[in-house]
What does this fold into?
Amino acid sequence: MPTWNDIRADFPILHQQVNGHPLVYLDNGATTQKPRAVIDALVKYYERDNSNVHRGLHALSMRATDAYEGARTRVAKFINAADPAEIIFTRGTTESINVVARSWAHAHLRPGDVVLTTEMEHHSNLVPWQQAAKASGATLKYVPIVGTNAEGGLDLAALDTLLTPQVKLFAFTHISNTLGTINPAAELCRRARAVGAVTVIDAAQSIGHQPLDVQAIGCDFLAFSGHKMAGPTGIGVLYGRRALLDTLAPDETGGGMVVNVTYAGATWKPAPERFEAGTPNVADAIGLGVACDYLDSLDRVAIEKHDGDLARLAYEKLSTLPNIRVLGPTGARGGLVSFAFPDVHAHDVVTFADEDGVALRGGHHCNQPLMRKLGLTSTTRASFYVYNTAEEIDILVASMRRTLKFFRG
It folds into this structure.
């Protein structure tokens, strides 16, 4: 395996300057950069194989179909799904969760039912359940977080009273996109299953950073985005257990997902086709499959350690800055750190960092309820990936010191 510094050569975008400084890209929680292998796969498809998939009998269509369905099989292997038919291609995590919130919730939620989620959810795993509860008359409840800075993670003891037979669905994030908290997904699924609840995992922040095995975790649905794991934007995945998918009505209807159409009605294909109406995002699905190959070539266990080590190092070094508030666990965490200065807005912090060539993210990170609970309006987030180095953390801290010197004198 190449060294982490060698891996940087695989990512063309990193070899540039921003405002006269070498780019230090620490916004991987928002989107990761793409290796040359993924970029080349997209170019190859458009230069050689571009055609609509399925039902085409000419050479280009058959090649495109083989590559598209091959990507589905590759993704299934990446998360150890039992059957490629359990992989539905979507636009991303948000659409994947919305498919469940509309298709599953419409069929199963009734007044008096409970949908359980957590206080640390991204809006994409919160607003769809608010809408589903409102439409069905169900109640939405939340697993609380522990600690002033949420350093204690989820209050797992609260599950004893929250997880009742009235809970029909439990939706939670695997790794918090603001806190870096790693939730015990397998344990949460086991406890939900004990009361008959269906589970939905937002894996956007974990999919590219560690091995994921949906069978070992025991989840019913799992959602993620390609662009969070070195793949293209505009492509995502909804994993669903086949037994559940085959009971659900399609979320969208149209071409490609039907068996037979008359003027009186239509019948649907089985999963996954019934959930992929219209022309799919063929090129980006192929690129996602190549991203799976690339990450496996680096060893996802090694990636998990690398990204976690950088996050803990950043936590340690940022904590030396005066009057800083760092969120999330002090020990094991996902590959990100969020922090706030009481006297400097996050947008100002990010703007000053950009002057030093450092790309960060500032704002509420689609976590407005969590921010309010913590008494904040925004934080600055540094998030790490395979091409980041310990030296870049030193550059980050130096940039923060320059920012504080300007605002505090």
In short: The domain at 40-296 is CATH 3.40.640.10 (Aspartate Aminotransferase; domain 2). The chain has a mean pLDDT of 97. The first strand starts at residue 17 and ends at 18.
